[in-house]
Design goal:
The chain is built from three helices and four strands, in the order ββαβαβα. It is α/β, with parallel strands linked by helices.
Length: 78
């Protein structure tokens, strides 16, 4: 389920959550609300998405495999 899930929404949201069940719940709800949603399960992939696509909102877990949520935020701010 990783990747772009719905392109109908006007607003793009990136969900970064390594717990698959929680990730699925969040993404399904956002899709029902007609948002465009991308999802990934680790910090390294998240940075690839962040620097490739312009997002309106990024929702991230803190404790992630690879790069954690705090480091993702530091790199966005650089």
């Amino acid at each position: 389920m990783e990747g772009s899930l719905n392109m109908q929404g006007n607003q793009r949201i990136l969900i970064i959550e390594d717990e698959k069940n929680l990730n699925d719940i969040i993404v399904k709800r956002l899709i029902l609300e007609k948002y465009g949603v991308d999802t990934c399960f680790n910090g390294n992939d998240a940075l690839d998405y962040i620097f490739s696509v312009e997002y309106d909102v990024i929702v991230s877990d803190i404790m992630l495999p690879g790069i954690d949520g705090f480091e993702i935020l530091r790199r966005i701010r650089e």
